[in-house]
Amino acid sequence: MTLTERLRERISRAFYSHGLLCASYPIPIILFTALCILACCSPLLKLPLPGTGPVEFSTPLKDYAPPGAGPRHGEPGERPDWYVGAPVAYIQQILVKATVSPWQKNFLAVDVFRSPLARVFQLVEEIRNHALRDSSGVRSLEEVCLQVTDLLPGLRKLRNLLPEHGCLLLSPGNFWQNDRERFNADPDIIKTIHQHEPKTLQTSATLKDLLFGLPGRYSGVSLYNRRRVVSYTVTLGLQRYDSRFLSSLRSRLKLLHPSPNCSLREESVVHVHFKEEIGIAELIPLVTTYIILFAYIYFSTRKIDMVKSKWGLALAAVVTVLSSLLMSVGLCTLFGLTPTLNGGEIFPYLVVVIGLENVLVLTKSVVSTPVDLEVKLRIAQGLSNESWSIMKNMATELGIILIGYFTLVPAIQEFCLFAVVGLVSDFFLQMFFFTTVLSIDIRRMELADLNKRLPAESCLAKAPCRARAAALRPAVPHAPHTPHTITLQPSSLRNLRLPKRLRVIYFFARTRLAQRLIMAGTVIWIGILVYTDPAGLRTYLTSQVTEQSPLGDAGLPAMPVPGGVLPAGDPKVDLSVFPSEPVQLSENQTQQQWEQQAGLEPDQHSWARGPEGRENGQLELGAEAEVTWGAEDEEMWRKLSFRHWPALFSYYNITLAKRYISILPAIPVTLYLKPQEALELRHPQEASRYQPFLAEPGTPPERPAQPRAHQDVTLYKVAALGLASGMLLVLLLFCLYRVLCPKNYGQNGPGRRRRGDLPCDDYGYSPPETEIVPLVLRGHLMDIECLASDGMLLVSCCLVGQIRVWDAQTGDCLTVIPKPRLRRDSSSIFDYQEGWDPSPDSKNGLEDSLESSQQLKRLLGPPQPPLFCDQPDLSSLIDTNFLERAGTAASEPRLRAVGARHRDSGYDFSSLVGKVYEEHGSAGGRNGTFPGLSAPHGPDERGLGDRSPGDEPCAGCDRSSPPQSWGGDLESSIWSLELQGNLIVAGRSNGRLEVWDAIEGTLRSSNDEGQSGITALVFLNNRIVAARLNGSLDFFSLETHTSLNHLQFRGGPGRGSLPPSPELCRGAALRCRLTHGVPCAHHKPITALRAAAGRLVTGSQDHTLRVFRLEDSCCLFTLQGHSGAITAVYIDQTMVLASGGQDGAICLWDVLTGSRVSHMFAHRGDVTSLTCTTSCVISSGLDDVISIWDRSSGIKLYSIQQELGCGASLGVISDNLLVTGGQGCVSFWDIGYGDLLQTVYLGKSNESQPARQILVLENAAIVCNFGSELSLVYVPSVLEKLD
Amino acid sequence: MAENDAMPTLPKKCGPYISSVTSRGMNLVIRGVVLFFIGVFLALVLNLLQIQRNVTLFPPDVITSIFSSAWWVPPCCGTASALIGLLYPCMDRHLGEPHKFKREWSSVMRCVAVFVGINHASAKVDFANNIQLSLTLAALSIGLWWTFDRSRSGFGLGVGIAFLATLVSQLLVYNGVYQYTSPDFLYVRSWLPCIFFAGGITMGNIGRQLAMYECKVIAEKSHED
């Protein structure tokens, strides 16, 4: 045990120092690693590249003997290792070049090849019957040739064309079953030849290629053969190499058909080795394994998180694994182990065995280290934390592989060997390469963060900051406030589950997947073309070379040379410039010669007699063709498709994979055919179909459309099809592009935010965002607490108690109702510096003494500029807004630790205030100017009573006044606000209910009957319901009162403040009469109050809800079901009641029966806001998550992660449009799909401010509360269409 | 992987995806269908692997070779894998010990890759004799379980599945439904149980991972503070 621990400690220490090293010298280490990788991979250069192209090796023909079956000996560098054992077959080609000579101009196009082809039968017979008679007896071709059996069953249609059960001897004669009679009877040779051509494009060998033994275009069997030389081969497959037989065959053929000017080299045998071809059937499992591999890599690298560049690290991880594999192969090669396994097949398994886990574990461990450490230390710590598990895993894997090694199965052993080396090199790379990359990445991240951060603030890193902030939050209310602030993450990813179709489309759009796929596909395709068809490339190159070299001149397509060099074999026709008469051609050569001298008459005669005699107007000059042999004819087989031989042998079920064939030098055969021979062979139908073949280049013969080679037709078809499909593809892609890509590329203005700052869903898709300039309603100096609106007007109340009335359409401030009493008791951190100019201070001091009269004056007079509103008061201490829970409620439950105390004492603020006052007293002597810090208006600080030094002692309040009397006596801030028509109803903390005229700013009525603070108000028609802190519920009714009975408005007896003045009741006075009082509706403060459909619902801290009838204030039900205080209530006209509590639960109730319909656990922490649409319930909680629930089933549909502090800001615009607040922005969501539709930035100045409250007005304007200012936003027109 | 294989039409109120994920029965059906298709796919591919050695260079018909096995084999494999994949999470729930070990898609992918590798080895690697082959495969299968599962219930279920499946194939061969080219263990190949065991573990792994989504939904629904 101790040993283990010691080991563990040592390992961890080693890793620690290693991490320090890596993070200290990143660049040298990366260079060193790259060098290591290159060094280890260098042996790989010697390995042949895997591929399917055949490999060649040539040996001299002289003294050729097939290699032995055993291992190679002698110089190993020269012989390839596949050159072992006998080849599958020896291929002997007899290359025939034939031409009709001399050529007569009146010959038909078919004459070019008909008679040359006819000679193939004779030639084949000669070859077949060739026998070598020597001392050892008679040897015929049958003995040496490759005997083939049946064709494959699938090739029935080729049955008559390819030899079966006999020698593998292929010639064009096979088209006519080697039967000359058939050939003669064939009216259309080209059709016969092409009937088995595939209709589509095909790279592999066609039957024509197989039988002709050379590519189609070299054969000359075409109607437009201007050279008039026809080439074909007779291909002979030989079982064994019999040099004497072959040389005798060669000499005999040469004797019979001499090729005088042939310069073909005949000294080497070329052995062609074929790689294993991967068929589709084998490809499928391979592709499957690769797909699994990529899925594995994808799912693994997806987990990399909280780093600067996710993609960079994922790439580094993949590079680590891949290069470790390459290193392992390289090292194994270096030590003499050559890989025999199919690399492509085992590769995925190797990757899976080596795995990406370590890399991920490392990353995770490093990013989870404390962020305020130095990067070096973070890396080192992260490494040492995971050192033990990494070592353990590695040891386990090595052990498993070692066990695998002892299975003694060669394949598995080899696999294990590779895996071991791969594992070790992977470990090496992880330790050096990946760790260093990680350190660089983390350093980059910190740098980026530092640049972004303000220097005064000291929260370190992005991501963990959240967690820390969350952890700090509950503690904030207790602690005296310090200037330390927590920077919030500017914007966070929102966790959102989108519908699949959208996700797919977003994915396509985001990654431009289609484009990239097409690009990659093209590159791969080109690569494959270049790579797998070396023969084609080589052909091209050789042709280029031969064209340029002087030697290559002979290889050029030789134009017929009239009266050219004489063929030596036929000396008598050397000057036969003129075509001879057919009749006389049967006679001897001397006559022919005579004919040439004789002149033109016999020719004319012959023309007249010919089938085409009608065209006898002109004498045609004949030309004698000459067959040339050049370098191009050498190794004609090279021009064949590299699949030619495998295809041929595969027809007989012989595979050439991993085997080789030997190709013997071709035997050249030259045939000169006499014109009369061609004429004799001419088929009668051809004569009528084809017009004479005109050899003049200048006068192109008019050809009938019918005999146009169908090859050309196919070509045109293919071209047309290709063009059409290409256009279709382009159109399709265009449509796709239009569909998938967002259309507003050009909208990006200059002041763009970085992409990282944009709100986006968790797939990184960020919908089009717009920046609109909202109507900013400025005027409040403190944070706005209460908001109310009736569509036309907007009433807001800030912390100092100032009420402002705004026109909801234009954003004009109509009325300002200042705080009723001004008192300078303390200053708080919330005051802005600009408020601290000395003149109002002195004024305040004056006014404080004249408190009540000043108050009245101000009330009566026109709205004044907010001179006094900068006066701080204790209202900041109080969490006032119970009706508009948004914002306030978010902060209130954060007080929960303290809040418990609060709740027990029923919001007895006296203790808190007392403390404040004590502090104030101690600090009172200092005349503080604020030390340059502008206090943030985060929700966290709202409930704080952090004191800064006040400027002067509190004048209005007695410092020694008992705290108990404070709540009722000294302070009355507005806790709730309602607006209807132009009447504002305000509920104050001292229990006073005030009715103000919104336009004139006059107090119309007030009621002081209750003593307990009004926490919530409902104002419906002329009925006002006030819920109080002590749990009582008062029903008022507003009555128009003409008499000046102002005594009714007197305050309670205990209050000496604000005696109602006579002026108040000028005009049509309103009377606010208490109709009912439910003294003990709840035995704890009422926190939520809602009315709809004639019902009034109260929610209280005593965990219950009560439903009252609005008319007679009769309690209908008491709803129990929550296990915490009620924080949010929603009721609408459909009598559906939803309630949320501090237990994080949401209950849905049926108001008609009082039964609970469903019960959902929604949030960690309090439910702060609750609203419903016809199909969904939308709730927000303290956890800054907005959840959307199915209203009927109570199932959570999805949730939206909000930014910190914006958790409760939400509003429903219509049944499917949700608006949420963020940092300086509002976002619009499609409720049905949870789809982020648009983010609207409200100018730049608000960037740091979270939207704490959102109020949706009827005219589709949205009011956001950014601290002390309101923003009036009209819904973007894009979104309006959605409704 | 293919959650959207079966996307039935649902009421318009909420998105089809959301209600399909949240509804319990629908979730089960979707999981079953997904597992079924995974099973069919694996059966086809692995079958191809087994017959690959006889495939010539130019097979006359490639498509037929993919479906060379009898028509009933892939559906049977699919059904079996759906059953197994649903059985594993169900058993976890009933035993009350949710499977926590390596619950990630990357691990599942790794498991599938190793399973295919085991099949590959059984098909392609030349072993000296059958015992060696069977022992190697057994070790590999146990290794698979140890690497990706490590639960006793999983092991037990895997062994049970292997036993049952071998029994069924024995019966099938005995009744002449199909045959093995070179049976060495009664009528079947001796490595068959190992393959079945590994397959059971793999499908169970996939099934558990798929069930995670449902669990997440339920957990979110029922979590209490």
UniProtKB/TrEMBL annotation, chain A:
Keywords: Cholesterol metabolism, Cytoplasmic vesicle, Endoplasmic reticulum, Glycoprotein, Golgi apparatus, Lipid metabolism, Lipid-binding, Membrane, Repeat, Steroid metabolism, Sterol metabolism, Transmembrane, Transmembrane helix, WD repeat. Residues 602-615, 938-950 have a biased composition (Basic and acidic residues). Residues 282-440 form the SSD domain. WD repeats lie at residues 1119-1159, 1160-1199. One of its GO terms (cellular component) is endoplasmic reticulum membrane. It is found in: Cytoplasmic vesicle, COPII-coated vesicle membrane; Endoplasmic reticulum membrane; Golgi apparatus membrane. GO terms for biological process: cholesterol metabolic process; immune response; positive regulation of cholesterol biosynthetic process; regulation of fatty acid biosynthetic process; response to hypoxia; response to insulin; SREBP signaling pathway. InterPro entries: Beta-prop_SCAP (IPR057042), HMGCR/SNAP/NPC1-like_SSD (IPR053958), Quinoprotein_ADH-like_sf (IPR011047), SCAP (IPR030225), SCAP_N (IPR057041), SSD (IPR000731), WD40/YVTN_repeat-like_dom_sf (IPR015943), WD40_repeat_CS (IPR019775). One of its GO terms (molecular function) is sterol binding. The chain crosses the membrane at residues 20-45, 278-299, 311-337, 349-373, 394-412, 718-740. It is a multi-pass membrane protein. Pfam families: Beta-prop_SCAP, SCAP_N, Sterol-sensing. Residues 586-597 have a biased composition (Low complexity). Residues 586-615, 833-853, 920-969 are annotated as: Disordered. Its main location: membrane. Belongs to the WD repeat SCAP family. Escort protein required for cholesterol as well as lipid homeostasis. Regulates export of the SCAP-SREBP complex from the endoplasmic reticulum to the Golgi upon low cholesterol, thereby regulating the processing of sterol regulatory element-binding proteins (SREBPs) SREBF1/SREBP1 and SREBF2/SREBP2. At high sterol concentrations, formation of a ternary complex with INSIG (INSIG1 or INSIG2) leads to mask the ER export signal in SCAP, promoting retention of the complex in the endoplasmic reticulum. This is Sterol regulatory element-binding protein cleavage-activating protein. It comes from Taeniopygia guttata (Zebra finch). The gene is SCAP.
TrEMBL record, chain B:
The lineage of its organism: Eukaryota, Metazoa, Chordata, Craniata, Vertebrata. One of its GO terms (molecular function) is protein sequestering activity. The keyword Disulfide bond does not apply. It is found in: Endoplasmic reticulum membrane. Keywords: Cholesterol metabolism, Endoplasmic reticulum, Lipid metabolism, Lipid-binding, Membrane, Steroid metabolism, Sterol metabolism, Transmembrane, Transmembrane helix. The keyword Transmembrane applies. GO terms for biological process: cellular response to insulin stimulus; cholesterol biosynthetic process; cranial suture morphogenesis; inner ear morphogenesis; middle ear morphogenesis; negative regulation of fatty acid biosynthetic process; negative regulation of steroid biosynthetic process; NLS-bearing protein import into nucleus. Belongs to the INSIG family. It is a multi-pass membrane protein. GO terms for cellular component: SREBP-SCAP-Insig complex. It comes from the Eukaryota. Mediates feedback control of cholesterol synthesis. The chain crosses the membrane at residues 28-49, 69-88, 131-148, 155-174, 186-206. Its main location: endoplasmic reticulum. This is Insulin-induced gene protein.
